[in-house]
Design brief:
Elements (H helix, E strand, L loop, with lengths): L3 H19 L10 H11 L7 H8 L3 H13 L3 E6 L2 E9 L1 H21 L5 H21 L20 H9 L14 H9 L1
Antiparallel strand pairs: 1-2
Helix pairs in contact: 2-4, 2-5, 3-4, 3-8
Length: 195
């Protein structure tokens, strides 16, 4: 039997392929990592969200977050609004087009999940979710402190110094502060990122 980790990776690729093949043109500007950002913004619309929140929620570098946000902004799905108390910060908000895309994506995701969990009992689905949560917690505990901020493409994030990641934040007009500044409910952010 194949390793469970390899099976999870294969399942993830198939889910991604299914979603890409069935996504209509109206949300093509929000594919891949951008979809998760749109949904995250929608699920956290009750509070101010900044680029650093996206970085922390998804474990990505400033440059990666900046690219995803720039694409969403150029496709008219988000806007970066100035913050009165700090000119360096830009608050991220969904536009009407972004909200429409999220509505469709939520429905599309529910349809995909119904296919994925066909034949499972609610108890089995809940147990599966608990297993995933435990595995994520286990791997987070096992990671070196600064490893979470390493970009697999070779760049580094906040944990290894200022460098290019800091410049990416400065270049986009976002806050150069640490991703964990001013957060009292990081677990809530991560839960929203998983939805």
């Amino acid at each position: 039997m194949q390793s469970p980790v390899l099976q999870m990776q294969a399942l993830n690729r198939r889910i991604t392929r299914y979603l890409h093949q069935t996504l209509p043109d109206c949300v093509r500007g929000a594919t891949g990592g951008n979809v998760r950002v749109l949904i995250f913004l929608a699920h956290h619309s009750d509070r101010d969200i900044y680029q650093r929140d996206i970085e922390k929620a998804f474990g990505i570098t400033r440059s990666t977050a900046s690219r995803e946000l720039t694409l969403l902004e150029s496709n008219g799905m988000i806007a970066r609004l100035p913050v009165e108390h700090d000119a360096r910060l830009k608050r991220l908000v969904l536009t009407a087009r972004g909200r429409d895309a999220v509505s469709y994506l939520d429905a599309h995701g529910e349809e995909m999940e119904s296919h994925l969990f066909e034949g499972f009992t609610p108890e089995q689905i809940e147990q599966f979710a608990q297993f995933i949560h435990r595995m994520r917690a286990n791997i987070e505990r096992a990671m070196p402190t600064d490893a979470a901020s390493v970009d697999p493409s070779g760049g580094t994030g906040e944990g290894s110094g200022e460098g290019a990641a800091h410049q990416a934040g400065a270049d986009t007009g976002t806050d150069g502060g640490r991703a964990d500044d001013n957060h009292t409910n990081d677990e809530g952010l991560m839960e929203g990122a998983q939805e």
